Fold:
Amino acid sequence: HGAAIGEENVAKTRDFYHWPYQPFEIPKDVYDLFNDSHQAKDRYYKSWQESFQLYAEAFPRLAEQLENNDSTLNTDNLKLAENNDQELATRVSSSEVMQQIADQNRTFWGGSADLSSSNKTYLKDQGDFTDLTPQGSNVFYGVREFAMAAITNGILLHGNSRAFASAFFIFSDYMKPAIR
Structure:
């Protein structure tokens, strides 16, 4: 884990895998396999680009939203409730802010691991994300905290969106590999 395996173990590994090639030497058949794969995928990519161009011509405003890499949340008009010496659960006040953010930001979305009614993360009037309604903002992950965190990471890494995942703190243990 923390040290090089050494020349003796490298030799044993090369012998075990019948690997006669020098470091960084790429056998022709391996190179050809990757090159063929790249060319096949390049055709799909070019086809997708052509389809997206047609989409952009037909729906320029929506295409601009997809191409916009600025995932900054607009929080200019947030109205925070005044306390008035009234105790308010954090999840309730958080929900109020999330609703406003969702109303002002179409690329804000996410969900909960089967707890949205308890942790107040359901975004009202934003629809549910499904295969039939991909424009929806509410994702139902089910009782899969790790998958939820990993999927949210993927959404955020992809860009063009701000996403959230929600669970009770005790369930964060299930999410730790994705959080890390």
About this structure: The longest strand covers residues 108-112. DSSP finds seven helices and three strands in the chain.
